[in-house]
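User: Here's a chain of 207 residues. Predict its fold as tokens.
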Amino acid sequence: MENSLVIWDQKDLPEKTFQDVLLWQSYDSREVFLSVPNYLEKHAERLRTKYLKFIHELGESRIDGKRIVEHFDLGDDFSFWWMTLLAEKNPLKSPCIYDCIRLLALEEIFKERAFTEVKLVSNDKDLRLSLQKMCKNLQIKFSWGTLCHNKIARWSVKKFFHALPQIIQAIIQFIRYLSVRWPLQKSDKPEWQTGDNVFFFAHISFT
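Assistant: Prediction complete.
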């Protein structure tokens, strides 16, 4: 008999089914569902240490016979690796760190519960690819789906702008810069220095 799990990457809580449901984003105060944020809260220190160890081992891993740290060597025993966002490990600068720790937590949950089949309900392509690889390594069947009302992604002007190639973004920013500042070139010059009612104050000090 297969032990299946549904991973729910939505803000709204799902209706309870006969399968185990794991919340990727949300807490569940009623403990009706499994929850990755709840798991993180209970095992925060261990998972943080595990993540730091992973980053350290990543820097020490070898490519073409050299460690990654050595590939980034700038001379004088200084490696640019320690300046990267990965090595800096600052969640304020790299929100994806939280996603990495959630994946570490998810891997532990998979092993503890011995799930044989996992279905992801999400619109996040990166999450889908990550879980697909994890399930393949753990020999777990994987499938993916989205909610019908979420199939049409919400597009804002900001999202559309950032989706454009960088050269197009630069041209738009330049045009916007000109449109804001060009009218100032045509504005009347101030006349506070001319006229019959002008006063001039000067302060002279002698030392």
